[in-house]
Amino acid sequence: MLFRSIADNLKHTVEYNEALGNTRLIVPAFSATMTPHNKADWQALGGTMEMIARTLKADGMKLGFHNHTAEMEVFEGKTGLEWFAEAAPDVIITIDCAWAAQGGQDPAELLRRLKGHVWNIHVKDNAPAGTAKDQRGLATVGKGVLNWDKILTAAHDSGVQWYTLEHDVPRPDPLTVLNEGRGYITPRLQKILGL
Q1: Cβ(7)–Cβ(30) under 8 Å?
Q2: What is the DSSP string of 98-120?
Q3: Half-sphere exposure of residue 22: CA atoms within 13 angstroms, side-chain side
Q4: Which residues are within 8 A (CB) of 144 and not within 5 positions of it... i.e. 6 or more apart?
Q5: pTM for this entry
Q6: Number of other residues whose CB lies within 10 A of the CB of residue 113
Q7: 28-60 pLDDT, tens per residue?
Q8: Which of 73, 141, 79, 151 is nearest to 112 (CA)?
Q9: Taking a C-beta distance cutoff of 8 angstroms, is the pair 68, 35 a contact?
Q10: Sequence-distant (≥ 6) Cβ neighbours of residue 38 within 8 angstroms
Q11: Which of 20, 115, 125, 170 could share a disulfide with 144, CB 3.0–4.6 Å?
C-alpha cells in the first residue's frame, strides 16, 4: 500500500481494509522523492507516520513500514530506519533481512537495536557478492550468506511475531525456492521458539 494512498485517502483506505478484515496497513517503501537523506527528515517522516498510526488506532488498525536498502544509510550513528522508528513508536516495522544486509547492516544487530518495534521479518537470503544477478543478488534461504541462527534468535528476543519466507525473483521456480527455504528455516525456527 503506497504511503500517498493511505495519507490522502485515509477514510476510504480504512473502509476498504475493514471490508477485507485486514487490520495492518503496511507501506512497502517510500518513493525516491519521499525517501529522506538526513536524520531530521527521517524523524519528520516518522512523525507524520505516527500521526496517521494514532488515527488508525481508533479504527483498530495498525500502520506499518517495510525497509529496503535506503533506510540503512547511517546518520549520526544510527540508520535512517532507527531515527524513523524513534519518532514513530506506534508504527510497526517489517525488517527485510536481505535488503538490510545489502544496505550494509547486520540484520540481527538491527533487530536488537529496534527491539519492540519489529513485528515481522522477511526471511530472505543474499547470494555471495557479485552472483545471482538475475535474482537481484538474492538466494534461496539457507543457500545464501546470511546467518539465520543469529538472525532468528535476535528476532525472537526482539519480539518478532511473524516470519515471512520470501524471494523476489525465485529461480528455477517459486515453489521449489519456497519449499527449499522452508525446509531449511523451519527446524531452526522451531528450535529457537522451543517447539
Answers
A1: no
A2: HHHHHTT--HHHHHHHTTTTEEE
A3: 12
A4: 98, 125, 126, 127, 128, 138
A5: 0.94
A6: 18
A7: 998 889 999 999 999 999 999 999 999 999 999
A8: 151
A9: no
A10: 75
A11: 125
